[in-house]
Amino acid sequence: MNEYRGCNWCQHYRPDGTCLAFHPNPIPLSIVSGKLKHTEPLPKQKNQIVYESAPTHIVYRLDFFREQERQVLEKIEIVEGDITKLDIDAIVNAANESLIAGGGISGAIHRAAGLGLEEECLKLGICHEGSAKITRAYNLPAQWVIHTVGPVWEGGKYNEEQILRNCYSNSLKLAISYGIKTMAFPAISTGMYEFPLDKATDIALNEVKLFLEQDNVIEKVIFVCFERQAYDVYQESLKQAFPLSYIAKPTSLMP
What we know:
Blueprint: E1 3-6, E2 18-19, E3 27-28, H1 29-32, E4 58-61, H2 62-73, E5 76-80, E6 90-95, H3 104-113, H4 115-124, E7 132-136, E8 144-149, H5 160-177, E9 182-185, H6 197-214, E10 220-225, H7 228-241, H8 243-246
Parallel strand pairs: 5-10, 6-8, 6-9, 9-10
Antiparallel strand pairs: 1-4, 2-3, 7-8
């Protein structure tokens, strides 16, 4: 078993959410200390990154955490293609608040599904930002369409990031309530709503990862990219969201 020895506490500021104490194989702060991010520096901190040794040490069994992460990662797939062609339980529509056909992904889904989808959406009424509603899929290969309304990006001044997180978490919760096991997301809000793609992919992957860690019902979540650029950004975000699956396994203990 691969083990590292770490101090009783660590309070490091690292943008990637990892702990430098385990260099050259950094591991997430959530594993070291149970926190995703530290908000207070150590006393007399001079640099952005600080490592303080302690009289005693805690041993972290990385193989255990790596296996947990691997099981979640196996449920996630990133593809480049057309979300309307997927023969799965449910696809997610990046909808507007009225749920009527719009441009981009929304328009493509409505066109492929047929008028039945529009008629059912009109009966559902308004869907607010961050919320999700579900309809049948009509002429689509999927069985269900989950409609969620992403935020319009306005520089991050109006809680846009939390609203986008809610889009993913509420869509997943709705999927669970309908017994959905396989589902696909587009890159919500990254088109006409102009949410920065890199921020959006980080939020999407981390929110889905957190949900899948806590729930075993959903078997597959697919992120569907309309173009190659988005696919490449998703792949890079995947490495950040699943660091233990992409770093080299350690061969010896750190002192």
